[in-house]
Amino acid sequence: MTTTATTTAATAGEEGLGVAEAAQLCGLTAHTLRYYERDGLLVAPVRRTASGHRSYTAADLRWITMVTRLRATGMPIREIRTYAELCRRGGHEEERLAILHAHRERVRAQLAEVQGHLGAIDRKIDLYEQHLAAR
Amino acid sequence: MTTTATTTAATAGEEGLGVAEAAQLCGLTAHTLRYYERDGLLVAPVRRTASGHRSYTAADLRWITMVTRLRATGMPIREIRTYAELCRRGGHEEERLAILHAHRERVRAQLAEVQGHLGAIDRKIDLYEQHLAAR
DNA sequence: CTCCCGCTTCGAGCGCGCTCGAAGTCAAGG
DNA sequence: CCTTGACTTCGAGCGCGCTCGAAGCGGGAG
Prior knowledge:
DNA-binding (chains A, B), mainly alpha, homodimer, DNA binding (chains A, B), DNA-bd_dom_put_sf (chains A, B), Multidrug-efflux Transporter Regulator, Chain: A, Domain 2, 6 helices, DNA-binding, MerR_fam (chains A, B)
């Protein structure tokens, strides 16, 4: 594991993690990380070592972390791709902000809805507990 | 629309809605409602009129509403089916309660996680707004 | 020199949750 | 009697987000 890290890291003075390490840090699989890159979710293709292996920088990891946050809050892949494209081309700050704004509102709404449902589930659980206690 | 309601309702003294009406009330499609039934998500098959049409009672609608709550909070179809089966067979209160308990904890955890991500998104938005204001 | 291991690309496959269309039935209205 | 329209069943199809396996390469250890 440390040996593996050294494999790539030693060649470039500690900078750059392999795909497996990066994946583990982000809570994804190597397959998924490559898939995200293929699918244009990354601002730029990840740098490669001389032998063609991906080498993830700290900036790559920060971006990917943001992607996981967007995914975990339900932003579709397509929309993340759009956002990434805007970043890639530079500028477009208003549009990027608009995407984040819209997403935030959706997430807030969904959060409120889930909280409402959770309340109903709580009440259902209370009923079961009363029912079971009454025996 | 009111005419449609009468079609089925008039035959049985106001009790029982057609699939389309029930679907609309629950925020689902008629296709989905039939699919749920086929898939065993309902405690019992919905009653039929003489002509074989489904007729949803108030109790059906309450159950389906619960199903939509469970779905909206991310419970998988399979698990709802299991829960429905336990209800169908009668008894099994502890197991039903256990399912709801487990689900509640998952939902709470996921809620907390999403709130965390939302905070990060908020901060990102702030950065953009500062950046744009600084022009 | 050979072995092994982790990476590479590519394309197919999968699980989930619907979603839809075709073809047929039935009851009421004109 | 004929049309209309909401219903019925059945099975196929789809969109999403991965997930996986095959086949090949390159570089360090024994």
